Each structure stands twice: as C-alpha cells, then as structure tokens.
C-alpha cells in the first residue's frame, strides 16, 4: 500500500474511491457512495480492507455534509469537496454510514485486524470519532 495512515482518505483504497467520485458524473456520485457504504454495512462475511477503506471514505463524505461536520480537507479526498462544493445525499445515508462503521470495527474485519497488528487500533478508531460524532448529531 502506497499511502497508509489513519485519516479517512489516507490510504490507496480511499484515494482510489475519491478519484472514482471525481471522474463520475455528479448525478452518479450518491449512488457510488451508497454502494461503498452498503458493501461494508451489509457484509455478513469477513470484511476485506478494500471495502472497509472505501466505506470509511464514504462515511467521511456523509459526515462532512452534516451541520458542523468535519471538512474533507485531505489532498487525497474528492476534489469537488476539497474545492468547497457540496453533494446532495439522501437522509438514510447517515444511518447507513453508522452501520458501515460499526461493521468495520467488528471482529470479522481486515481493517480492524491490520490496525491491531500495527498496534495502532486506538489511534485508527480515534480518527473515526469526528466522523461518528457528526453522524450521531
């Protein structure tokens, strides 16, 4: 992995997801975000890190659109958001994002396993807190 850090967009999978959003027709972006969130939230098997990282990035986008939510300011984030534009998202994305994060933090998650192995799970979970806080408002 070229980029790997605790920020929502600080890994190759999330950066690729952001690039896909940049390249997508603006009318298709919400659908891509839903797909990423559902891939984690609805996963009943072992959750691969690729899906987890994309879902975290998607949840960060949803959180950024909530009142007082954290800005997407990563150089790896979607350019349309880092340039100050917004995105219209359905109301159910908040609950879907929270379900995705809960699934990512569960035992059957490669994301969790990788951060445990790196002895940085607490730091990685801490990086998710601003996202969860905005979603829980």
Q: What features would you highlight for this structure?
A:
137 residues, 0% strand, globular, mainly alpha
What can you tell me about this protein's structure?
The chain is an all-alpha fold and 137 residues long. It has one domain (12-136). The chain has helices at 12-23, 29-41, 49-64, 79-82, 92-104, 110-117, 121-136. InterPro entries: DUF4259. It comes from Kibdelosporangium persicum. Residues 1-22 are annotated as: Disordered.
What is the strand and helix layout of this fold?
Layout: H1 12-23, H2 29-41, H3 49-64, H4 79-82, H5 92-104, H6 110-117, H7 121-136
Helix pairs in contact: 1-3, 2-3, 2-5, 3-5, 3-6, 3-7, 5-7
Region (Disordered): 1-22
InterPro entries: DUF4259
Pfam family, one: DUF4259
The largest β sheet comes out as: none
Low-confidence stretches: none
Count of the domains: 1
Give the CA-based shape: globular
Q: Tell me the structural class.
A: mainly alpha
Radius of gyration, taken over Cα atoms and rounded to an integer in Å: 14 Å
Number of helices: 7
Order of helices and strands: HHHHHHH
Number of strands: 0
End-to-end distance: 34 Å
Q: Residue share in helices? A: 55-70%
What percent strand? under 5%
Q: Return the average pLDDT rounded to an integer.
A: 94
Question: Can I get a quick summary?
Answer:
This protein has 7 helices and no strands. By secondary structure, it is mainly alpha-helical. Helix 2 crosses helix 5 and helix 5 runs antiparallel to helix 7.
